[in-house]
């Protein structure tokens, strides 16, 4: 049989279309698997990488963070996977800069501790919405000690428990506000927090309030409600639990204004952001920016993802919207992502 050939969607310079052409066939090193990708997903990060060349460490570049497909090769010390397994995985080109660690190619290197078996009843195009958002959620919730997201910008350290496969009885424990609950990372953070026994109060667009409830939010408020701040504060207070803080998936000046008003009324708390936090935060606000590549997520990948997908506790939300088939469709999907999406993850089949 002829050796398989690889191709990738390359970025040769900032602000230019991706170019599909030959790519070296990757091999799995220690702690790695090579996945033959059947589906990849698009993240806002990819749009910034394409437009501005930010985070590109090596030109030409292959980026993208989410893959689902079959294991093609297993690294020497990896025992959780075998060739042919159906998997989903989080690829880490963002950290390594290596083209073989980007998703937008047929064969990608994935760290084995950022991958999990995808149950047979879940399609690759559904499963691929999970990986990057899952890691972002765990980084937002479970880091115990602050690290560095960017030079001079600390990560949040909420120190919350990992999600559990058990049905946790509702308790007056921790309460978290998820601002932007219909976004990809908002849906996943709501799911993971709810599965950790945390009461989630979410903020979404009106038409996506039901989706946020399906993710496990206890109460959801319309982001355009003029009384949003007071309603969120009242809902948090009514839980009777400890207010942990806010995970702000959107992290814009407008959402920061609301975040700080909510936290002020609740007497202080964490503000976990997806972008650099507000410069002027009062001393009772512990603000930080998540960095969604961290080994804190390894136990969740290893012990939680597959059984939780199997028993329906972890759902592939927001739903996938399949933009097209083939590496050539990734450019179109990136354009759609730049135009903005609502409660969906853009996916390309390979
Ligand atoms: N630092 C990191 O490590 C890290 C990791 C992952 C993502 N991120 C960043 O996190 C952000 C979210 O990423 P994503 O993939 O989750 O985004 P996404 O799914 O593309 O976000 C789209 C959603 O944003 C919601 N939204 C927009 N403006 C809003 C507002 N003012 N209030 C509430 N919701 C609002 C929309 O809600 P409605 O349609 O319901 O109105 C929509 O569903 C991006 O900026 C991304 O770059 C950072």
From TrEMBL:
Coiled coil: none annotated. The keyword Zinc does not apply. SUPFAM superfamilies: GroES-like (SSF50129), NAD(P)-binding Rossmann-fold domains (SSF51735). Keywords: Oxidoreductase. Belongs to the zinc-containing alcohol dehydrogenase family. Monomer. GO terms for molecular function: oxidoreductase activity, acting on NAD(P)H. PANTHER family: HYPOTHETICAL OXIDOREDUCTASE (EUROFUNG), ZINC-TYPE ALCOHOL DEHYDROGENASE-LIKE PROTEIN C2E1P3.01. Residues 13-348 form the Enoyl reductase (ER) domain. Gene3D superfamilies: Medium-chain alcohol dehydrogenases, catalytic domain, NAD(P)-binding Rossmann-like Domain. Signal peptide: none annotated. This is Chaperonin 10-like protein.
């Amino acid at each position: 049989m002829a050796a398989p050939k690889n191709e990738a969607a390359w970025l040769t310079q900032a602000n230019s279309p991706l170019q599909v052409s030959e790519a070296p066939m990757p091999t799995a090193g220690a702690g790695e698997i090579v996945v033959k990708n059947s589906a990849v997903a698009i993240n806002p990060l990819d749009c910034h990488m394409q437009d501005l060349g930010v985070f590109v460490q090596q030109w030409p570049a292959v980026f993208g963070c989410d893959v689902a497909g079959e294991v093609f090769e297993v690294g020497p010390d990896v025992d959780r996977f075998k060739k042919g397994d159906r998997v989903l995985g989080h690829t880490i080109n963002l950290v390594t800069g290596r083209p073989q660690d980007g998703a937008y190619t047929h064969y990608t290197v994935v760290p084995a501790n950022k991958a999990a078996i995808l149950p047979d009843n879940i399609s690759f195009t559904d499963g691929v919405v999970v990986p990057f958002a899952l890691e972002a959620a765990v980084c937002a919730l479970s880091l115990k000690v602050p690290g560095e997201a960017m030079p001079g910008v600390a990560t949040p350290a909420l120190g919350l428990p990992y999600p559990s496969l058990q049905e946790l009885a509702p308790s007056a424990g921790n309460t978290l506000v998820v601002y932007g609950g219909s976004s990809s990372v908002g849906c996943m953070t709501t799911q993971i927090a709810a599965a950790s026994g945390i009461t989630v109060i979410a903020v979404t667009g009106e038409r996506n309030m039901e989706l946020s409830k399906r993710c496990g939010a206890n109460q959801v408020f319309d982001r355009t409600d003029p009384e949003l701040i007071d309603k969120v504060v009242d809902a948090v207070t009514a839980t009777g639990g400890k207010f942990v803080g806010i995970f702000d998936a959107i992290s814009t000046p407008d959402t920061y204004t609301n975040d700080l008003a909510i936290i002020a009324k609740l007497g202080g708390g964490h503000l976990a952001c997806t972008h650099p936090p507000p410069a002027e935060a009062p001393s009772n606000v512990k603000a930080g920016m998540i960095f969604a590549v961290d080994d804190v997520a390894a136990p969740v990948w290893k012990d939680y993802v597959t059984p939780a997908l199997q028993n329906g506790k972890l759902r592939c939300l927001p739903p996938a919207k399949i933009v097209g088939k083939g590496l050539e469709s990734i450019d179109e999907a990136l354009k759609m992502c730049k135009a903005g999406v609502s409660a969906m993850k853009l996916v390309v089949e390979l």
